[in-house]
Amino acid sequence: MSSCVFCFCAIIADKQYTMKNLKLKSDKYRKSRGGYSRFLDIYCDHCGQKVLLYQKDGPGELKRLYLDRISSPEKVTRSQHLPIKRVPDLVCSKCHSLLGVSYIYPKEKRPAFRLFAGAVKKKLIKG
Ligand SMILES: [Zn+2]
Predict the structure, then answer these.
(1) In angstroms, what CA-CA distances link 103 with 14, 34, 66, 82, 117?
(2) What's 25-124's CATH class?
(3) Which of 9, 26, 27, 92 could be stapled to 44 by a disulfide with Cβ–Cβ 3.0 to 4.6 Å?
């Protein structure tokens, strides 16, 4: 048995550990929305595929997804620091439906995905 097998196991275990210990981000954006936040699983409404994990701040409808509030997957979080023109639009990895387009939310000059109406479903994650 090679040591690589053990390394791989360690990586998986570490990932699960990280998932269980999600921390809500707290900053000026959260405070300006009343300080109330929770995690949502975002699903494609066309095929039911889980698209990403999102921290929603404050009450109200989910019209856009701020890039700095997306916790996973890495494919999406990796683009958080790219110039907005290089951030790919939000597409379902399974059925390839276009769910939202990347843009800068003008009011806060904050990179986000503008969601199409009815493109995604959300589910509250219970801690
Ligand atoms: Zn889909």
Answers:
(1) 33, 24, 10, 12, 16
(2) mainly beta
(3) 92
